[in-house]
Amino acid sequence: MKKPALTTILALILSTTAFAEFRTLQPSELKQDFALMKRALTELHPGLYRYSSQEETAKRFDEFEAKLYEPMREDRFFILLSQFLSEIKCGHTYVNPFNQKKEIFERFTDGKTYFPVYFRFVDGFFVVTENASPSELPKGTAITSINGAGIDEIVKTLSSVTTADGEGTNATRLNSIDLTRKNGGTFALFDIYFPLFYPPENGSFRIETFDPETGKESKLDVPALTRQERNSEMERRYGKTPSYDDGWKFSYLEDGTGYLRIGNFITWRLSFDWKKFLSGAFGEMRKKGTRDLIIDIREADGGDSSIPVEIQRYLSSEPLECASRNRAYIRTAKAEPELLRYIEVYDKELKAALASGLDKELFQPAENGLLEYLGDRKPCEKIAPYENRFTGDTYLLTGPANASAAFTLAKSVKDAGLATLVGRPTGGNLKGFNGGAYLFFNLPNSGFEFDIPVFAYHPMDTSKAEDSGVIPDVNAGTSVGDVSSGFDRALESASKLIREKRSASK
Question: Which of 154, 244, 254, 313 is most buried, by CB atoms within 10 Å?
Fold first, then answer.
């Protein structure tokens, strides 16, 4: 993947005026942070060499260190860290914006730097979906450049700081560049990185557009906004910003097909009991004798790993195996005390275990240089299907956002033949991914935090696994025209399969 020249990045960053004043870090501070980052990754990260050899990784470490011999502004160091971590090709290893210290987070997010337009990246364009600027930008308008940079250049630049599992899941990286009502209301990747590379000029962005229907081209300036200004204007024009609760929905389509949308797996942020929600939906379908169900997980990525099991219990007619079909590996059974000083965790028991050392019965040396973790391989009873399970035909809508737990659901459902998959290939990776539990490592001088997954999951037979996400049974992408018209091609493709099936059965 081609990266922008370092001199170009530096020139762009130094022209930034809309941010709060960034700190300057001295070479000694940069080198200390680098040394700790290198130790943390090499001693703790179980997937560091999954897609790159030790020699290739060592070379990247050397290249990174060679950039640390002059004072550097923290925003440039932030970019360099993000690009380095991106090259590990792990969807759970990144400079996590939500885990940064408050004062650092505010310097990067509180400026008048926000692009006033939401869009989807389709067919090489940023296609407008919502607009908070004073200019007329109808839905479906194609943006071709911003501040003189073409969309291809912008996408290549931003792709260098995205995350994804493996090399064959580029669509996941591209999907994460989209700026939508869902991620724009919180903190999107685009909002954090785009103004670092392409800062607003004199308080605005110069954009070039064209109308796909008429071919008319336009040039106009749109104002850079604060996050609050953009959110307020978006809500004034389009209604309340969707919440996590709004991502979950059950309804019936006009033809009587059940439609279950699970837009996120972040169950701890829901205000309702998600298991009761599912029980109610499947109970209603059983009562009504619903014969077809579409489950839409296209917007979901990681989160609660119990969701895949719960959904399968409603779809399967046979007991489910509870044993993992992956092997789990760890890098170390005991972490050095010096490294533990800089680590925070959700699970205090995890940190205590790393400090004292895991019980020797929980791991064994593996051929890949890691330690195979045996704690997940205890015998357990099969998981029984629910009584109010769905007995009709199921269609699962998938897309490149589906990583981690959402990827697991797509893979499990396809492997078991519980649904027909429709849409686009998922994120995640058939070769496995890293996750399960996380260490939040804090660099002492920059103050930046990055996530390190504890476990590396590999399929039982790695020789047959491809470097890709789950491929749907029916491919259904999106065109520029679909965005402007609001046409949902994946949903229509699933509905067409249902119509054809019903017609054939008459």
Answer: 154
